[in-house]
Amino acid sequence: MAVETGNMGPxxxxxxxxxxxDLDIAISDGPNYKGTAGAFVSTERxxxxxxLGVEPFCYEKPLDEALVxxxxxxx
Length: 75
What we know:
The protein is mostly beta strands. 12% of the residues lie in helices and 57% in strands. The protein is built from one helix and four strands, in the order ββββα. It has one helix at 63-71; strands at 2-13, 16-26, 33-42, 45-54. A hairpin with a 2-residue loop joins strand 3 and strand 4 (45-54). The radius of gyration is 13 Å and the shape is globular.
């Protein structure tokens, strides 16, 4: 399995600074996955929201809705 990240950038999650980034996951004996994630630290804990889908069928269509949910994450 190989995991690559990209398109990393800052994002504000409520009162916490965090990051948004994309994931590409290649599995040797299975389908490839794409993902989008948001992460931030609050009260000394890592909070992370991840959306993964099989590329392209289960990723492209719900991506906009998943981004809304990830970007609204709060501690």
